Amino acid sequence: MMEIAKNKEKHIAYEKRARELVSQMTLEEKAFQMVNRAPAIERLGVKAYNWWNEALHGVARAGTATVFPQAISLAASFDEDLVEKVADAISTEGRAKFNAQQKYDDFDIYKGLTFWSPNVNIFRDPRWGRGHETFGEDPYLSSRLGVRFVEGLQGHDENYLKAAACAKHFAVHSGPEDLRHEFNAQASLQDMYETYLPAFKACVQEAGVEAVMGAYNRTNGEPCCGSKTLLQDILRKEWGFQGHVVSDCWAIKDFHEGHGVTAGPEESVSMAVNNGCDLNCGELFLYVADAVKKGTIPEERVDEALVHLFTTRMKLGMFDGKEQTPYDAIPYTAVDSRQMQELNLEAAQKCIVLLKNDNNMLPLDKSRIGTLGIIGPNANNRKALVGNYEGTASRYYTIAEGIQEYVGDEVRVLFSEGCHLYREQISNLSLGKDRDSEVRAICEASDVVLLCLGLDSGLEGEEGDQGNQYASGDKPNLDLPGRQQEILEIACASGKPVILVLLSGSALAVGWAAEHVPAIVQGWYPGAQGGRAVARVLFGDKNPEGRLPVTFYRTTEELPDFTDYSMEGRTYRYMRTEALYPFGYGLSYTSFAYEDVSLSSAVVGEEGVTVKAVVANIGDRDGTETVQVYVKAKREGTPNAQLKGIRKVFLQAGERKEISISLPAGAFALYDEQGSNRVEAGSYLVYVGGTQPDARSAELTGHKVLSLAAEVRESFTL
Q: Over the range 352-367, which residues count as b (16 or more CB within 10 Å of their CB) and which as e?
C-alpha cells in the first residue's frame, strides 16, 4: 500500500478528473476559484470553499479545539514521533469539525481542510517575532520535524488525504516583521541551499506536502509569491513539486505597493500567476480574467493552476459524496476528548527544558514544603500558554493553576503578579513598583519561591497581531521586559530558594539569572495543559527531557544586524561567541553514559555510515535521553559541528540500550558557493552524545561528547 501523498499514479488520476472539471468552467468562474474564498459553481456541483485554515499547534481560529504546545515548544522535544502524533491528532479534530460544519452548510473561513501549516522557516535571529511558529534554528531538526508534522496532518491512507498541509513561508523569511512588505532578503546560493531551503525540500520530496506558501518579502530581488527562481526553477523543476502554491495573505498587492516591482494590480497578478502562484490569499486574483483577455496571462496557465487546486480538493474527498473517505465518520466528539487532553499533557511535559539545577534543587519534595510562593506576570497568564495561531481550549491550566491543583491542600500557596509583563506598574494610578512589598512579604513567608517570567504572544508575534506591544511583533532586545529583572532580584535577595520558570517563544538573555538563580526551567508556550505539565516536572513526576532548538545568547549586542541574511555569525552552526545556553542543551534528573560507540566504517562512501552506541541510565531515576549525532568537516571555512541525527531513548534507572543511527552520505556534504552539494575528500569528526560538542555544553553538563574519526577518500557530488 502506498499513501496518496506519495503515489504518482493516483495523483495523475485525480489530476485527470480535475482537468475534466476545469474544462467546463467559464473564464470568470476560473478566476473566482483562484482566491481563498472560492464561491460555489452549482451547475458543476462545486461547493463554496475557503482555503484559509490554520493548524500550527491545533485547529486554530475555528472555535474549541485542543491547544497543543506552540511549534517551538514541540521542537524542543526533539521527538519526531511525538510531532507526528500531535499533527495526526490535529487532523482528526480538523476532520471532526469539518464534518460538522459541512453538515450545517458552514463554508466560512477557518472551516476547511487545507491547513496553512507547518512554518518551516529558519529561526535565524532571536528577535524575530514569529520565530515561535517555527521548529527552531537548525535545518536538519526543522526538516525532520517538518516532514513528520506534514505526514501526521496528511495521514497515510492510500486513496485520500486526511488534511492538506502547507509548508510556509517560501523562502528566506525571518523578519524584520515591520519591513516584510517591502524587504529584499539577500542570501547567497550557499546559504539558501545550506540553511533556508532544506526543510522545504524535505517537506516536498519526503513528505509529499500538498501546498507551499510564498513569503511576503523579496528574495534576491524577486517577490517570493511571483519568483521564477523559487516557484519554477527550484520548487517545480528541481524538486518536482506536484501540489499547489498559495500566496501569503494580501502579498500580491505588495508587488506594486511595497516592493515597487510592478506598476499596479494587473501587472502584479500576471507576475504571480505566470511564475507559478496558483491561489491568492486575498482578492487580487479576481483580475485574472481581465489579464487573460488582455493577453498578459495565458489561459492554459490559469487552467494549470485550477487543476492543481481541484486535484487537492479531490484528494481530500470533496467530490466523492458522503462516507467515501475513511475520515467522513469522525464524530464531533473526537474534539477535545480525554485522549486529546492526555496527549496534550504528554506533549507539554516532553517540551520542557531544564537549564540549571544547582545541588539538585529540583525536583521539589511536596512533603518538605509548608508554603510555596508563586510570583510573576506569567504565573497566571493564559496568553503565555498558547502563543499565536491558536485555537480555543475548553480549559486552561496556567502555571499557578497547575501547581495549585498538584499540591492541593498539602501546601499553602501564596500568589502575586509581582509586576506587569512589560509596563512599569500594574495600576495606572500607582507611583510605580506597586507589588514590590507584596513580593517581599510572600518571599519572607515562603519556603520556596517560584518566579514565572518571560514573554507572551502580545510581545512577540506577527506584524499586525492585535496587542503586539512593540508594534511589529519583533523584540527590540533579548532582555526580560519591564520590571521583571527587578522582581527577580528582589526574590533572590530574600535568601529563599528561587526557581525561575521562563515562558517565551524565543531565547532570552538571562545571564544574571544563570549566575544567581539555583534552578531555571524553560517552559516555552506549553499549550492549554502547560501549568499541569510544569507542575509534574517541578515535582519530579516527569523527568525533563527537552532540548533547546535555538541558541540562548548572552547579549543582544553580539547578534549581527537583524536585516543581514548572511548566516555568518548566526545560530550554533556559524557563531564564534560562546552561548549562554547552547542549541541542543538540556538537563535531566538522572545521568546518562555512552559506551561502545562505533562507526560501521571509518571510511565514508556514497552509502554513508551507521553509528552504534550503548546508552546507559546511570542515575537513580527513569528518564529519556535525547541522543544527538553531529558531523564536523575538519577543514577551513566550514560550519561548526552540525546536527545530523537524533534518537529519543527511554531508560529505566540502571537500564542500557543499544541504538543505531544511519548517517547518509549527505550528512557529510556541504553546499559550495554555486549551490552544489558536495562530499569533499578529507577528515571528519562524528560526535555522539546528549548535547552538541561545544565547550560551553561540556562546562554546563560536566560531560564531554565522544567523537569518532571518519574519512572521505574521494570527493563526490550528491
A: bbbbbbeeeebbbeee
Tell whether 18 and 124 lie within a shared domain. Answer: yes
Asked if the structure places residue 332 within a domain, the reply is no
Among 460, 463, 474, 694, the active-site one is 460
Q: Taking all residues of the chain, what is their mean pLDDT, rounded to a whole number?
A: 97
**Residue 710: strand pairing partners:** 684
Amino acid letter, residue 213: M
What's the pLDDT band for 84 if we cut at 50, 70, 90? very high
The percent of residues above 70 in pLDDT, for the chain, comes to 99
Cell of 664: 547518509
679: β partners: 716
468: pLDDT confidence band, cut at 50, 70 and 90?
low
Phi, psi of 193 (to 5 degrees): -80, -25
Nearest to 620 by CA among 590, 656, 585: 590
214 is written with which cell numbers? 510564498
CA-closest candidate to residue 143, choices 199, 192, 197, 87? 199
Per-residue pLDDT averaged across 130-153, rounded?
A: 98
Per the annotation, the verdict on 88 as an active-site residue is: no
Is the domain of 140 the same as that of 175?
yes
Task: Find the catalytic residue in 133, 191, 210, 248.
Answer: 248
Contact call for residues 65 and 91 (beta carbons, < 8 A): no
Q: Is 202 left (phi over 0), alpha (psi -120 to 50) or beta?
A: alpha
Q: Are residues 133 and 233 in the same domain?
A: yes
Task: Please report which confidence band the pLDDT of residue 305 belongs to, taking 50, 70 and 90 as the band edges.
Answer: very high
Give this prediction's pTM: 0.98
Annotation marks residue 248 as catalytic: yes
Phi, psi at 241, each rounded to 5°: -60, 135
